Each structure stands twice: as structure tokens, then as C-alpha cells.
Amino acid sequence: MKIAIVTGASRGIGKSIALNIAKRGVGVILTYNGHSEEGQAVAEEIKKLGGKAVALKFDSSMTNTCNEFANEVKKNLEQYFGSNSFDYLVNNAGISGARGPILETTEEQFDELVNINLKGPYFLTQKLVPLMADGGHIINISSGLTRFSYPNVAVYGSLKCALEGFTRYFAKEFASRKIRANSVAPGAIDTDFGGGKDPMMKKGIAEITALGKIGEAEDVGVFVASLLSDDSRFLNGQRIEVSGGIYI
Ligand SMILES: NC(=O)c1ccc[n+]([C@@H]2O[C@H](COP(=O)([O-])OP(=O)(O)OC[C@H]3O[C@@H](n4cnc5c(N)ncnc54)[C@H](OP(=O)(O)O)[C@@H]3O)[C@@H](O)[C@H]2O)c1
């Protein structure tokens, strides 16, 4: 059985990714941060569907715990999955953080976003890659905001650009182990992210999107699950946008 690790899978896009991966017969180690019950419930849902899953706590802002988390993953791989490696990593966990103009951004706001959205996935990947099987695949969840820009989200958008950069550098450095890395950039998706989206916002997003609607978590989840397998074996170091055609 192939095994995937999905961060931030207690809710939203990550939850959909975890469920869709499991539906394809892949074992899942999913993580939650603040919503432990929701995280455990996703693992239970996968088991009810006949799949294998465990839910572990991971806080992306605490990079000093990445080693400990990797040890926890190792233990679960051996004891629950009977394996000493995993195959896929989806770095999905992220926050929108405080919004505001560049002139008003504080260092605290900047650092919070750097830690959770960039430093976390960077060092988690570093600590987990020794446990990854050769030929594995990493998907980093980016954002449409790396192709177009909006006011008041400069830190968030800049860090997603950096995550896409890291994806390409990783793809180059781990090619000798045939581990691929790609970024998936969702457009506007109807989740709790950034406090959720009200009806007016959804209407506005629908108007600038070719397919005429805001995305659902499932639109991204089913795509990421389909991308992980060897069917995409020659795709490497790329950014793929899943937005229904926003601003095209
Ligand atoms: N929704 C959008 O419009 C949109 C668009 C483009 C890109 N994205 C990206 O898609 C990803 C998922 O977003 P979403 O819309 O699904 O958001 P969401 O519904 O708010 O869910 C966020 C997930 O990340 C986890 N998380 C939050 N802070 C964390 C931390 N410090 N450490 C570890 N996990 C943490 C949450 O866990 P707990 O609930 O357990 O705390 C939750 O599972 C993010 O990387 C986001 O930047 C979203």
C-alpha cells in the first residue's frame, strides 16, 4: 500500500485531499493543529470507507518539533502500516494571516506567516524526506496569488511565491532519488480560510472566474489526489493552477 502524509487535513482543502487519496487505496497520515476532534473524525471517516488512516498533531509554526513529529511518523509507519517508508507528502497546512497594506505590516504578522506557511513546510520536508521512498512525490499547496496580485495580502502572496521556488529547488536537488515536487495553486476556494467568504465575495469571485463559480474544497482535493500517482511521472518542478480560470 502506498502511504501519503497530508498536513492541515482536519478541515477544508486538506480534508478533501486526505479523503480523495484514501478513496484511491492509499494509506493516509493526516495532521491537525487546533481541531483535534475534526482531525480524528477524518481518520475515522477514512476507516469507515475501508481505508487506513491515522491523525497526528502537527503545528507548522513550531519547527523545533519537526524531528519529534518525524519520529512519530516513523513509529506509526512501522506499527500501523507495517512499513519503514512513505510515498507522498502534501504540504497543505497554512493560514491567511492578518491582511493589510505593506506600509502597516508588523514584524510579528510577517513572522507568523513566514513560520507557518514557509519555514514549517521547508523543515517538515527536510525531516520527513529521509523516510520517503525513492520515486516519491511532494505537492506543495500554493495560491492563485502567485500569478496575480491583490492589495493587502503582500506577505501571504510573497510567501506562496517562495514556496513555489522551494518546490523547484527541491525537485532539482532530489532528482537523484527520483523524488518529484510540484505546486498546486488553488484559486478562491470556499473554506473557513481567512474567516470564510460571504455571499457578496462569492458573487464577485464567480464574476471573474471563467467557470462562473467559487471553487469547493473537493475541486482541489480530487485533483491533488489524482496528481500524486505515477500517472504524472514526468511532471516535475511545475506550478499547476486549479481555479476554474480566474483572471484569464
Ligand atoms: N481557501 C482558499 O481560498 C485558498 C486559496 C489558495 C490557497 N489556499 C491554501 O490552501 C491551503 C488550505 O487552506 P484551506 O482553505 O483548506 O484553509 P482552512 O479551511 O482554514 O484549513 C486550514 C488547515 O490548516 C491547518 N493549520 C492551520 N494553522 C496551522 C498550523 N499552525 N500548523 C499546522 N496546521 C495548521 C488547520 O488545522 P486545525 O483546524 O486543526 O487548526 C486546517 O486543517 C493553505 O495552504 C492555503 O494557503 C487556500
By CATH, the topology is Rossmann fold
Q: Give the cofactors and ligands.
A: NADP nicotinamide-adenine-dinucleotide phosphate
Largest sheet: 7 strands, parallel
In round numbers, the mean pLDDT is: 98
Specify the CATH architecture.
3-Layer(aba) Sandwich
Secondary-structure class: alpha/beta
Task: List segments where confidence is low: pLDDT < 50 over at least 5 consecutive residues.
Answer: none
Strand content: 15-25%
What is the CATH first-level class name? Answer: Alpha Beta
Silhouette? globular
Measured as a percent range, the helix fraction is 40-55%
SSE sequence, one letter per element: EHEHEHEHEHEHHE
* Rg for CA atoms: 17 Å
Oligomer: single chain
**What is the count of distinct domains?**
1
Tally of DSSP β-strands: 7
Distance between the termini: 39 Å
Largest sheet, order of strands side by side?
3-2-1-4-5-6-7
Number of helices: 7
How would you describe this protein?
- This protein has one domain: NAD(P)-binding Rossmann-like Domain (Rossmann fold).
- It has a seven-stranded parallel β-sheet, sandwiched between helices.
- The protein contains seven helices and seven strands.
- Helix 1 packs across helix 7 (217-228), helix 3 runs parallel beside helix 4 and helix 4 runs parallel beside helix 5.
- The N and C termini lie far apart (39 Å).
- Helices cover 42% and strands 17% of the residues.
